[in-house]
């Protein structure tokens, strides 16, 4: 009798838990559908408004006071060059810092303070990085309102993200891999370079792309250091026809980026400029999705080539 009572109690408890599971599932699907439908509605409206403006002339034309002849040439070129500086600055430094903190740094109070600050910096508002870059890069180091200053400002912004992503990817590697490498006589660096990094590269790459995707849409730090809202010329070309065939003059050039160009058009009263902003926003979304798609593909290839 007592056994039957216990069985009934267990069944009631299981049924109650299943009801909560169902409620949580329905709530999660409802929240997901709201988010997805909101994005689809906004994206569809942007496609409807911006698609007619997506012509070749729109890509190769400078901004103009006349909406029908305005383009995004200086904006997408500036965005590309700024992101190059950001990637070459933040990615090696962030991955190196993450490897050091996770594999080499001694576990003491000093390291813990660094770890706490790195984690907190990932949530600092972007305008703070803009003010820091304005005081450090623009005034103290004398970089001025240039592509170099903008790229370094965005590098500071995404650096904590890259460090945290690198550390989490390294932590996900089983301890047995390290122990096996040490048992075969591998050094610390051989273990890290030949085993830890290849196995964690997919996770590190995901964090890097997430950071770059955030940087490409940031406006506050760029405006703070003095990006131009209207620019009708291009920076000097990074490639020259004479030796050494590479020029760094473009690092000192003034610039604009896609989000600022969109803000400039949205703030104008003419409806045609709103369509231009929608077209630029559509291109920015496609660029971000392309970056994420590339990360997914590379992560799949890396995981496929890894033999556990």
Topology diagram in text:
Layout: H1 2-50, H2 56-60, H3 73-104, H4 109-121, H5 126-140, H6 147-171, H7 175-183, H8 188-216, H9 220-224, H10 258-266, H11 271-305
Helix pairs in contact: 1-11, 3-6, 3-8, 3-10, 4-6, 5-6, 6-8, 7-8, 8-11, 10-11
Please characterize this protein's 3D structure:
The protein is mainly alpha-helical and 308 residues long. The protein folds into two domains: 51 residues; 250 residues, MetI-like fold. Helix 3 packs across helix 10 and helix 6 crosses helix 8. The longest helix has 49 residues. The chain is globular and about 85 Å long.
Q: Which CATH architecture of the largest domain is right?
A: Orthogonal Bundle
pLDDT averaged residue by residue: 83
Instruction: Report the top-level CATH class of the largest domain.
Output: Mainly Alpha
Note the total helix count.
11
Q: Share of helix among residues? A: over 70%
- CATH H-level superfamily of the largest domain: MetI-like
- Write the CATH fold name of the largest domain: MetI-like fold
Taking pLDDT < 50 over at least 5 consecutive residues as the criterion, the unreliable ranges are none
How would you classify the helix and strand content by structural class? mainly alpha
Distance between the termini: 53 Å
Number of domains: 2
Order of helices and strands: HHHHHHHHHHH
Radius of gyration: 25 Å
Strand content: under 5%
Sheet bearing the most strands, described?
Answer: none
Rough outline: globular
Compute the number of strand runs. Answer: 0
């Amino acid at each position: 009798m007592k056994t039957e009572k216990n069985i009934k109690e267990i069944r009631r408890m299981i049924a109650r838990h299943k009801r909560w599971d169902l409620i949580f599932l329905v709530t999660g699907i409802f929240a997901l559908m709201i988010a997805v439908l909101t994005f689809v509605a906004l994206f569809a409206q942007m496609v409807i408004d911006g698609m007619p403006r997506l012509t070749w002339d729109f890509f190769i034309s400078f901004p103009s006071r006349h909406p029908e002849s305005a383009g995004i040439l200086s904006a997408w070129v500036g965005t590309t060059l700024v992101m190059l500086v950001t990637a070459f600055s933040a990615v090696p430094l962030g991955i190196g810092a993450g490897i050091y903190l996770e594999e080499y740094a001694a576990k003491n109070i000093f390291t813990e303070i660094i770890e706490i600050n790195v984690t907190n910096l990932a949530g600092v508002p972007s305008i703070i990085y803009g003010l820091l870059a304005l005081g450090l890069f623009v005034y103290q180091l004398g970089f001025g309102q240039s592509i170099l200053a903008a790229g370094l400002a965005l590098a500071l912004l995404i650096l904590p993200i890259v460090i945290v992503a690198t550390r989490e990817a390294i932590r996900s590697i089983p301890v047995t891999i390290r122990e096996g490498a040490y048992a075969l006589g591998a050094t610390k660096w051989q273990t890290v370079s030949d085993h830890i990094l290849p196995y964690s590269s997919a996770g590190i790459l995901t964090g890097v792309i997430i950071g770059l995707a955030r940087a490409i849409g940031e406006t506050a730090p760029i405006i703070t250091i003095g990006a131009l809202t209207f620019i009708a010329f291009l920076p000097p070309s990074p490639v020259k026809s004479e030796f050494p065939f590479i020029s760094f003059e473009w690092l000192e050039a003034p610039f604009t980026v896609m989000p600022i160009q969109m803000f400039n058009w949205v703030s104008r009263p003419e409806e045609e400029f709103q369509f231009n902003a929608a077209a630029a926003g559509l291109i920015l979304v496609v660029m971000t999705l392309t970056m994420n798609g590339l990360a997914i593909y590379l992560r799949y290839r890396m995981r496929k080539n890894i033999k556990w």
